[in-house]
Design goal:
Blueprint: H1 5-14, H2 22-45
Length: 56
């Protein structure tokens, strides 16, 4: 698991959501993984070994 469930729940509560489906965290983790992998790819394409905010 890449994403902290407690922090996600806190954000949902701030936005007025009470519940989260069981598959939400799984899908969220998949999306986070895609973001990370795409950022690494971009950094490598720019000949860097450091991932930066601009890679998102």
């Amino acid at each position: 698991m890449l994403t902290a469930k407690t922090q996600v729940k806190d954000i949902l509560k701030e936005e007025g959501m009470r519940n989260m489906s069981n598959d939400f965290m799984e899908r969220l983790d998949q999306e986070v993984e895609k973001l990370i992998r795409n950022s690494v790819k971009r950094a490598k394409e720019n000949l860097r070994k450091t991932v930066m905010g601009r890679d998102l």
